[in-house]
Amino acid sequence: MFSALLIEKGEAGQSVSLTSVDEAQLPDGTVALEVEYSTLNYKDALAITGKSPIVRKFPMIPGIDLAGVVTESTHADWSPGDRTVLNGWGVGESHWGGLAQRARLDGDWLVPLPGAFTSRQAMAIGTAGYTAALCVDALLAHGVRPEQGEVLVTGATGGVGSVAIALLAAAGFTVAAATGKTSEIDYLQGLGAATVVNRAELAEPGKALQKERWAGVVDAAGSHTLANACAQTRYGGAVAACGLAQGMDFAGTVAPFILRGVTLFGIDSVTAPRQRRTDAWSRLAADLKPAVLESITQEVALAETIDAAHRLMDGTVRGRIVVDVNR
């Protein structure tokens, strides 16, 4: 038996509780793991609170991330004792996830835990930080360079935004952080932001083309924020879109793309191929300082995760939440 957060659905609707689960109930997979840490992402909070139909079948153990140790394996790449990280692949949505003490997964979904990180640090990064690294990789691959101007990061106090600021600053960029939390200016500057932009400047409908401001953008908001960010991106610049905190809609025009040659990259973290994943984790290992990582992290026990999910949905959480599944 092991402890897990379990989401169930009956006639009265969805319920979630901390419960004991028999290991025989774990889904099929080629690798069994002892989970050491998981984390709480925005998608996890949506699933736990039921605010969005993230869970595709019930019962479900949520948690799109985990870090742990292989205990059994029939997969050629993994042996007992190997330390691994998982992000995405529908885990916590259609396959039992990481908010539990045990997991059984497809070995193709796993990547090695970088030697620079402990399991706890890897989950302080989680899908949010790994997605931020994918965004930075996309901007750099496009040719965005520090001398071309400021890079905008929206949703700056969130998990993606916090890590993106730190990675961009480490790469030499001047970073503008967009947030509605004026009390967090010191926090954002501590991560490496040079300026702070009030998110209200971006959140309402704007002109199709606006003053050129950004060499690149990492956007976790979507909706009007993404449209305005594109409209303000400099000629030949790039925007990496990875989230929908404001909304899934995109109320923009083709003007930035056909008149300024702006490129819009869609960043998928769920089914990204392994090489792209390992490249992103290599960037994180090289550029994300442990002190910075600790400054954006808070830890909760597995039993505290439901409350933390509600706080995340209420917008009262900054940075990352790590879940110690063994306490």
Characterise the protein shown here.
With 327 residues, this protein is an alpha/beta fold. The protein folds into two domains: 2-113 and 296-324, Medium-chain alcohol dehydrogenases, catalytic domain (Quinone Oxidoreductase, Chain A, domain 1, Alpha-Beta Complex); 127-266, NAD(P)-binding Rossmann-like Domain (Rossmann fold), CATH 3.40.50. The protein has nine helices and 15 strands. The chain has helices at 42-49, 119-142, 159-170, 185-191, 223-231, 255-259, 274-287, 290-295, 305-313; strands spanning 2-10, 13-21, 31-40, 65-73, 83-87, 102-105, 110-112, 151-153, 175-179, 193-198, 214-219, 233-241, 263-266, 297-301, 320-324. The strands form three sheets. Strands 3, 4, 5, 6, 7, 14 and 15 form a seven-stranded mixed beta sheet that branches. Strand 9, helix 4 and strand 10 form a beta-alpha-beta unit. The chain is globular and about 60 Å long. The model has no long low-confidence stretch (mean pLDDT 95).
From the structure above, extract its key features:
single chain, 327 residues, alpha/beta, Quinone Oxidoreductase, Chain A, domain 1, Rossmann fold, 2 domains, seven-stranded mixed sheet, six-stranded parallel sheet, globular
Write down the overall geometry.
Answer: globular
Largest sheet: 7 strands, mixed
Q: How much is the average pLDDT?
A: 95
Oligomeric state of shown chains: single chain
The unreliable regions are: none
Question: CATH topology of the largest domain, anyone?
Answer: Quinone Oxidoreductase, Chain A, domain 1
State the end-to-end distance: 15 Å
CATH class category name of the largest domain: Alpha Beta
